[in-house]
Amino acid sequence: MTTFDALTPSGGALRGDPQENPRRRPRTLLRALLSPRFLLTAWPWRALAHSVNTMFVGYALAVVAMPVYLPWALFAGALATRPWDTLPVAPMTAAFVAGLVLTAVFTPLVALPLGALERRRLALVTRGPFTSGHRVPPPGLWGWVRTRYTEGATWREVGYAVLLAPLSFVFMMVLGALFTSAMVMAVGPVLVGPGGEAEVALGPTTITTQAEAVPYMLLSPVVLAVLLYASGVLAQGHAVIARALLVGPPKDELRAELSQVTESRARLVSAFEYERRRIERDLHDGAQQRLVALSMDLGLARLDMEEGGEADRRVAAAQTKANELIDELRELVRGIHPRVLTDRGLPAALAELADRCPVPTRVDTDIPRRLPAHVEGTAYFVVAEALTNVCKHTGADAAGVHAATVPGGPGRDETLLVEVTDRGPGGADPARGSGLTGLRDRVAVMGGTMELSSPEGGPTRIRVELPCGPIPPTPLT
Questions:
Q1: Which tens digits make up the pLDDT trace of 449-469?
Q2: 472 neighbors 461 (Cβ within 8 angstroms)
């Protein structure tokens, strides 16, 4: 198939040619500023509207934020007008502390709506998307406060609010001076009057006659053009600052990064599980079997020795140490990956954990089939760590373990539900130790959730939900 370009007789592209439109209509303010056709596009007026809005927004911000910066203004004014050694200590300290408190508490409350407004105004001078970068807070007022006051996006908006005041002043001075000059130059002959009744000052020049005012009147369109270019430059610089401080990464970019992290996490988990099983196999089939053979050889050697002799006592002691080492190695292998978990599944492994626990523990399981290895392994170690905490820290006289599979919703895998409870004094706090935090991290790696309930007076309950499918990705919030 032959493609013919739509050309005019002079060889140029037709007005409707889609390849020609991007050159005639710049898609960004920066490209428009670099184009000789800048004044013939809509960008100068969009930039001017944005700049004028910036001055009004800056003025409104100054009024709204006055209670926040007023202590700082009083503090700075006192330092500037009086010698520092004559200032009253108590009022100056009070002004300084009040400024700190007001800034820390109320500045984010001013900056958050300002950031939302400025992201909307960015559409005048630059292309989106304009995502905020804020995280989704947990339910409740305290969850919102904790999230907003601890995330970087909020404090970047606070920094933008601090910069907006001097930016608005610069806009007002530059654009106000240019606009005033253009208007005075345009009506200069009228202001001077036919007989030179008045004088008009234009910077270092003073106009006294209409003849002197006419050249300036003819130059007023040039000043207006300079005004539009200056507005475009200021708006572009403002947009760069606002985008850097107010706009977070696009959702698509976050999803791509999250997908890579999820895939990497799944590979690491698989590699860790494989390496753990290899170590467990090597210890069980290698070192443990050799120690058993050594113990048997020592037992056979005792048969050829005089019973009760010095050599018999030494060999007996060596055999005892070998048996103790075998027991320690078995416990180590069981800690890496218990054989009963591999051979008989999670219910039997949990029953064995309860049998070895010093605290009387009741186990209730409803798991009709074998689960994926990573689900069984995670559930086993969660219960093992929880029962260890019961023995070491709670002083409980009884504990219970419940494990069951529950069906998932439409299109979702079934879920393993594990609950460990103890009749202890309660008051467990993940912030006071790394054990519960480690449990939560282990569950999160497998795409599960963990809830802790431990009121003062007890009981303490750990509830874990693990999806029984492949390792799922972390949800994007």
A1: 888 888 887 788 889 988 887
A2: no
Q: Are 417 and 463 in contact (CB under 8 A)?
A: yes
Residue pLDDT, tens place only, 2-40: 443 433 333 444 344 444 454 557 788 888 888 888 998
**In this structure, are strands 361-366 and 449-453 parallel, antiparallel, or unpaired?**
unpaired
Q: Please, what CATH class does the domain formed by 343-467 belong to?
A: alpha beta
Pair 415, 406: CB distance under 8 Å: yes
Instruction: Give Cβ neighbours of residue 216 (< 8 Å, ≥ 6 apart).
Output: 185, 188, 202, 207
Kind plus residue range of the DSSP H or E element containing 98 = helix 89-121
Kindly give the residue spans of alpha helices, DSSP state H, lying in 283-425.
Answer: 288-303, 310-336, 339-344, 346-356, 373-389
- Quickly list DSSP for 203-236: TTEEE-SHHHHHHHHHHHHHHHHHHHHHHHHHHH
Whole-prediction pTM: 0.55
Do residues 230 and 46 touch, judged by C-beta distance below 8 A?
no
Reported as a single tens digit per residue, the pLDDT across 280-294 is 666 666 676 777 777
Q: What phi, psi does 353 have (nearest 5°)?
A: -60, -45
Residue with the two structure tokens 């969009």: 46
Q: Cα 51–54–58 angle (5° rounding)?
A: 150
Question: Residue type at 143?
Answer: G
Integer angstrom CA distances of residue 43 from 15, 24, 233, 237: 21, 12, 11, 14
Find how far residue 396's CA is from the centre of its chain: 39
Residue 293, judged by CB atoms within 10 A of its CB (0-12, 13-18, 19+), counts as exposed
Q: How far apart are CA 174 and CA 182, in angstroms?
A: 12
| Mean local confidence (pLDDT), 403-408 | 84
Instruction: List CB contacts of 47: < 8 A, sequence separation 6 or more.
Output: 29, 124, 125, 228, 231, 232, 234, 235, 236
22 CB-near residues (< 8 Å, 6+ apart):
none
